[in-house]
Design goal:
With 336 residues, the chain is mainly β. The chain has one domain (41-328): Sandwich (Immunoglobulin-like). Helices cover 2% and strands 34% of the residues. It has one helix at residues 314-319, and strands at 85-86, 89-93, 97-99, 104-111, 129-135, 142-144, 147-148, 153-158, 164-172, 181-190, 204-207, 210-215, 224-232, 235-236, 249-254, 260-263, 273-278, 285-294, 297-306, 334-335. The strands form four sheets. It has a six-stranded mixed sheet, with no helix packed on it. The protein has a five-stranded antiparallel sheet with strand order 1-2-4-8-7, with no helix packed on it. The longest helix is centred in the last third of the chain and has 6 residues, at 314-319. The protein starts with 84 loop residues before the first strand and ends with a strand.
């Protein structure tokens, strides 16, 4: 891996979310500038499950970003996505076994405190539920927006690119709940398994002709800020389009256990810089996935960073996961 990257002033771990914060925005950037979120995305609270008032770069943290959650922290302070059940709600995946490379209809339900499927949700960032799918080696990323049936069953057409173990994150806020949460469940993809180490990146990555540069350091237990600057053909992009009500969405996943940090930007200008505030729950390696929209297409820039704390066993976890390649772009649901 490259010299450990540090994200200055980066806030807690999207993004609930994973994580970023991590949906569908306006078709163009000509409308009113999106307002920074003052509350959590998907109601994730400071404990980490879901976006809440601690994170999201909008003055609030997202998707299970816990302000200071580390190993040994009580369950209510765990980062989002580590639990299949929390606060009486359970993520139930209909069929957790899929075939790599084959289209599948991912179906799941959120079971409430009474054991019945939840059918009413609060809209957060223009969607009632945000679904993230990522392999254990964190090589790819999908941000989906499933549809809800009257019986409480969610469904989303998708395909995982390679064999291995995946994590599914549901980021939502039930109607009547004071805050949201992020639940996580495993997805198993059969096929030709080819383990790969955590992808290496520097502070600059390119995607479809766009150059995205990361500024800042990720420091465990301390809230901070990071910036991502977008340019194309050597010129700053100053007309980013709103996506899910913001000019960028960031999801951070911790290598090893895929703890989910989902944050939103604290800036309201259409580029070239998008700023985020959050806190890493521990030292280690993280993958950051930035969604941004330009010329009516959503693209994702991915970074691998390490904190100045103890490095998480990224290589070991990657060895049990599949390597994936390529990315499919879209103006709404997309895979990377």
């Amino acid at each position: 891996m490259n010299t450990p990257l540090r994200i200055t002033a980066f806030g807690a771990g999207l993004a609930a979310a994973f994580g970023l914060a991590l949906g569908v925005g306006h078709a163009t950037g000509n409308g009113p500038a999106p307002q920074p979120a003052t509350a959590a995305h998907g109601g994730h609270n400071a404990t980490g499950a879901g976006h809440n008032a601690t994170g999201a770069g909008q003055g609030s943290e997202h998707a299970g970003h816990t302000e200071e959650s580390g190993a040994g922290a009580p369950a209510e302070h765990l980062p989002g996505g580590l639990q299949v059940s929390e606060r009486g709600y359970t993520l139930s995946v209909e069929n957790p076994f899929v075939t790599a490379g084959s289209p599948t209809d991912l179906r799941f339900r959120i079971l409430g405190t009474d054991g019945k499927p939840v059918t009413a949700y609060q809209q957060q960032h223009e969607k009632e539920l945000h679904l993230i799918v990522a392999p254990r080696d964190l090589s790819t990323f999908q941000h989906l927006h499933p549809t809800l049936a009257a019986d409480g069953t969610w469904s989303a057409p998708t395909a995982v690119p390679a064999a291995g173990e995946y994590r599914v994150f549901a980021d939502f806020t039930p109607t009547g709940a004071s805050e949201g949460l992020t639940l996580g469940a495993d997805l198993h993809a059969a096929g030709d398994l080819r383990p790969a180490p955590l992808p290496e990146t520097g502070r600059t990555v390119t995607v479809d002709g766009y150059t995205v540069t990361l500024g800042g350091d990720l420091t465990p237990g301390r809230s901070g800020r990071l910036t991502l600057s977008v340019s194309k053909d050597g010129k700053p992009v100053t007309d980013l389009q709103p996506y899910l009500g913001a000019y960028g969405h960031l999801v951070a996943l911790r290598a090893g256990d895929l703890a989910y940090l989902h944050v939103h930007p604290d800036t309201t200008t259409p580029g070239p810089e998008i700023g985020f505030t959050t806190t890493a729950p521990s030292g280690g390696s993280y993958r950051l996935f930035l969604d941004f929209k330009h010329q009516d297409t959503v693209r994702t820039a991915a970074f691998t960073v390490t904190t100045d704390g103890a490095v998480a066993p990224a290589a070991a976890s990657a060895a049990s996961a599949a390597s994936a390649a390529g990315q499919t772009e879209g103006s709404d649901d997309h895979q990377h």
